[in-house]
Give the backbone structure.
Amino acid sequence: MNGFWQRTLVILAALALGASAAHAGKLDEVKSRGKLIAGVKDSQPPFGYVDEQTRQIVGFEIDICAALAKKLGVGLELKPVTSATRIPMLEQGAIDLIAATMTHKIEREEKIDFSITYFPATQKLLVHKDSGIKSVADLAGKKVGSAKGSTSEQNIKKAQPECTVVSFETYPEAFLALKQGKVAAVTTDAPILLGIRNSDDHPEQWIIVGEDIAAEPYGIGLPENDSDFRDFVNTTLMEMWKSGEYQQIYAKWFGPDTKFPLPLNWTMEIWP
Amino acid sequence: MNYTFNWALIFAGEYGRWFVDGLAVTLELSGISILFALLLGTLLTVLRLSRVRPLVWFSAAYVEFFRNTPLMVQIFFWYFGSDPILPDFFKKWLYQQNIEFATAVIALSTYTAAFIAEELRSGILSIPKTQLEASRATGLTFIQAMRYVILPQAFRIIIPPLISQFLNLIKNSSLAMTIGVMELTYMARQVEAHTFHGFEAFTVSTLIYLSLSLLVSFIINQYNKHFLHIGSRR
């Protein structure tokens, strides 16, 4: 019995230590651990996806995380997350930050903090080239595919109350419904639309159209109320922009010769 | 653990209405599907008990096929898989309709019909053959014997498992959200996605499903007690 209580006490002490360590700054925690754990997408080319040859997760957001880890002088560990799991995982401390095509929304500020915008996505429409749909106005009375829980789903209902939104589990399913003619368009962030369009056997049949339905600024998700860590991420992002490292990474994934050409036509917020 | 429970949020404004809208779709979907499942199930039983070999084989094959494949797969088959075999002119018209809801009704009723057919058949077979023979000997026709002697007893036996099938169907209707039907579970997920209060959202939907199922059981049992005198001692 004595041995049992002793062991229990040791375990409790260890737990208490662990808990107090978690309350110390994230920056110190990452440094003492020797690696940065990033929550990333693993099926969202070109932001984060599994490379067919190497079987490794690669992508634009992965390179951003790698730059952050390099600046800290620690290794990088990637953990795949989904839109539904990323915020709970960050809250529980399973990951140090989220770089997973996450729109910076004020509602999400209730649970976590955000870095400055590192990618300014906008919401567009993906349609068949012969469909005649050119803007949101043409969607009146038509069905539009989207994915559950996404901001796009809400935005399109506001932008075009006359359309019926059909929400699927994933964007590839919404695209399949578009191909079968069950929906007239698929709507979400333009780079994601570009990704599903280019995954098709005949990408030239599909075009991305429409005005910017909504702005979807992507920010890095950070633990709530950890100012030092957030300062580090923000200043590193700005330094990357000023040194041209950001532009290099951008060109690697969205340059004119890539599968996802998207001109760089914005400027990161740079604090003086 | 820094989760703050916020129950008021779930019922405030828009979100409360989403639950009501979702419940309405769940009720509509389940109600229509139960009706079709009962009709189709009864038809399958009649075929199975007929003496015509090909009809018996068809019915047996149907039951084995539909109850031994996952409902989710069947829903995806009806929705995505049926596309290549439909004629183009028909598709054009069909896809303008509420094809998601219609697909869910087809999938739910064809699936549940297989189970209902098996229960009806076992109910009828559980009545000893001698009763039919005795009724016929007293001068009743086959239809009269079925109507007055066999079926009233058979229905008494299968009412409890039939209730289970109704309840299963109501719960299975949540799978319709995978093809974009905005029923109760879909709405609960929407509320979760917008508020990040998953615990409250899914607790509310759980309670709605539970009350709905208990209410259905209660109503059927009351009906049986008062009109069919089942479960009451005489």
Observations:
- Chain B has a mean pLDDT of 88.
